[in-house]
Amino acid sequence: MIIAQYYCAKLLWYLLIWRCEATCHPNNFLRCEVRHIERINRDFYHIEAEFRDGKVGKYSESQYTWENQQHIPYGKDDNGYFCRDSFYIREYRDLLINKNASITSFYGLEYDEEHKMSEKSSHEDDISIESRALYTALKENEWYIETSARQYRLTTLPLNVKVILEVKNVDSKPSSKFILLFPYHEAIHMGDLEVYNKDTGNKYATQFLNCINRPSTECQWNTLLYNSWKWRFNEKCICAPLAVSITFDRQIEPQEFIKIVVNYKLGRPFSTLKDNIAFDDDQRVIFSTNTHLLSGYKIGEQRTYYSISHTSDVEVVSLHLKANVSEIKEKIYMSGPYYHVFPLSLGESLTLRFPYPSSLEYISQAVRHVSIGIWNYRVNEEFLVLNEASEAREYNAKLAKIFERDSAKGTVDTHHSFSFEAVFPQRAKNFYFYDTIGNISSAYLDRNVGDKYKVAYLVPRYPLVGGWKSAFNTEYSHPILGNPLEILLPHSILLYTESYKVIIEFPIGSCDIIVTPPSGIKCRVETVKRHILGLEFEKSIATLHIERMFPKNVEHFPYIRVDYRRTFWWIPKLICTATIHLFLLYIICRIFLGFRRKLESL
User: Fold this and answer.
1) Same domain, 268 and 206
2) Domain that holds residue 579
3) Which among 565, 551, 566 has a CA at the least distance from the CA of 488?
4) Could you identify which of 174, 340, 402, 521 might form a hypothetical disulfide with 517, taking C-beta atoms 3.0 to 4.6 angstroms apart as the criterion?
5) pLDDT, tens only, 247-262
6) How many Å apart are CA 302 and CA 100, to the nearest integer?
7) b/e for 402-441, b at 16 or more Cβ within 10 A?
8) Pfam families in the record, alphabetically (predicted)?
């Protein structure tokens, strides 16, 4: 009897723990911390969590399975631990379980049970300067977002995102500042941010309050906060969001509404469901997001729309049924509406899985060398191109047939990359396209775009199959048409680029160098020394580094304006030095011939 009562009580306890965890949402005050994680496979983990009252609940396949919905490759280490794109980084429970308990910490700040923002007192030493700056910016002005509509166009790459906000100034004074927040998993491959007024179309100035870069290794936990678990991490990486300050063109009066539109692009939004598939199988990709729009202000009503090219076989996966997604019209899905969304809330994790027959190539690194001569400047571009699509098995015998069949139709419906679209200046000549092992590839002129550009298709010697990477080079020369000189900023291949560097070498004797890059890009000009015939000359080199560059329309290509003055004082010096070298060579030859004649006469 006692044994039966014991097991009944234990069963009731497990049911209570399961019920408490299942109903944990922003209105509940349940707090939980993860003590142990055991990885089962790519998608599933066993989790042991400790609740606020000290009780421990274990979740496994038999009781509660936590599914890794996000499938973000940069968020895992060799031990199977991962850094999810949940951005409440100071509380361990929200990072791994993401149930959004009401006491939610974020970027060194926290919201209490009444959802009032305050600085954290328990982790005072961990609040960085950026955290305090963000706290000050959010508290400087009070805003309320009446309605929010977010739209993802999951049809092409790069992915276009559009957010329409109707905001209200609930402060007691006029304000012209507004803070936008972008989650970490979007910020690391986001670009081309544009904010404007929906009614007038006036663009607003933006300022980045912090800098978000993709970590060099896998994203790891903050070892200063979680060293009690004794995990060995290579580096510290806090998955903080990107904060952007918007400056309106006028002061917004108290209780006044304004509609703003936010447009931006995502370079690598998809990951493949399977790493390896048969050559003839359809590729399925995963798009991960959250039901709530991340914001530092309260939102009255929020909806999210997803435009998908394939209406059939679309799978929606979420941790709870509250992440309801419905098809409102053909090829358009909607999540929501959600009402009274509290600040810094991400809602539920949401994953869409659907067919995507196209390739997922992007440029990991690109370096552009521009060498300015007397009459022409020479451009040499180096690319490291990767195709993140699913790797195909048994493709050797079928690849040529598929390419030949689809090329005859003018379209290649496959996730392998056979060609790249590239844009060159109209006056470019002496063009070469080859890979690093010497295979010369083909280039076909497609069309002319106005008087400035021409579009070509670059066909590599070997197709870029899913899961492959390759390094390519392009070279061409362009005449110098005057001073100041305008050099095209983007490289030739129209693909999303994570890291792009431009190196401009000026001729010897250049002075008064002024390099004017497009807005938001920093330029560094340094002087290096070169030796010619024993003489030391100085040569100027300008370097520009760009993170997350997106292909633009040809009409909106930016330029680098280069202004310099060339002096020829070094030419007489070089001629004199060469004359001295020739005279010394003549003397040495005369002496050598004299000794040789004396030896022959003996």
Assistant:
1) yes
2) 572-602
3) 551
4) 521
5) 999 999 999 999 999 9
6) 17
7) beeeeeeeeebebbbbbbbebbbbeebeebebebeeeeeb
8) Ribophorin_I
